What does this fold into?
Amino acid sequence: MGEVGPRIPDAPDSGARRVVPTGGTGGVRLLAIPRSVLLDLCAAHPEVASAIYRAIADVLAERYRQTLVRLTSSSQRALKDAGFWANV
It folds into this structure.
């Protein structure tokens, strides 16, 4: 069990930790980069900032897609259970 995901200090729920079960087959190395160091790195190397931004955007896009799939499935199931499609 470990903390997975970023903890953003300026976020409204900055005290919250995201703890999820993780499974691994071997050792894990943790990389912690202080915010000031990361900001300096991104300022000095825009290509690093761009790569980080793209990676975060990809993760968020996939989570959004998965959420839409679940919502669509749930709403279709609810409409079917309510007999909605019988009247169409």
Remarks:
- The chain has a mean pLDDT of 77.
- The first strand starts at residue 2 and ends at 3.
